[in-house]
Amino acid sequence: MVPAIIPIPFVQYVKKEDVFSFLTSRRKVVGLVLFAMVNVNVIMALAVFPRLRSMYIDLGIPVPMPITIFPYGITLLGLVYLAISVYLFSTKPDKEKIEELISKYNDGEMISVKQFTEVKLDLLVFFLIGLSVAYLLLSIVAPIYSITSSV
Prior knowledge:
Layout lengths: L12 E3 L3 H41 L5 H26 L4 H8 L7 E3 L6 H32 L1
């Protein structure tokens, strides 16, 4: 079974013996998602941003502020994502806490992993991904739209 980032209303069950490995794998999946966002940000910064900036200069249109500050913001977001990814890959869930919670279940019993998930971490990841999408929309897509509507 592949662990996934599942919104809170949906319930996932695993065997008692597999809870720790499931949560460890889940942390790695969250880290991979953030690392993928780092890659998207790098591609945008290296491929799209320079062409967009040169397009503004070639057309003689003043470069808007979102394009001017884009490299700084995307670098900051990338570093935050990278730091969280490294943290998630290098740490494991609290085994003592998990053992304490699953001790009341019988061997082989299916347990809802909802009670073990790190909701704060999930919310942080969703917020950061939303922030990244909004930042890319405001700093790349909106300027492209303004260029095409003015030409």
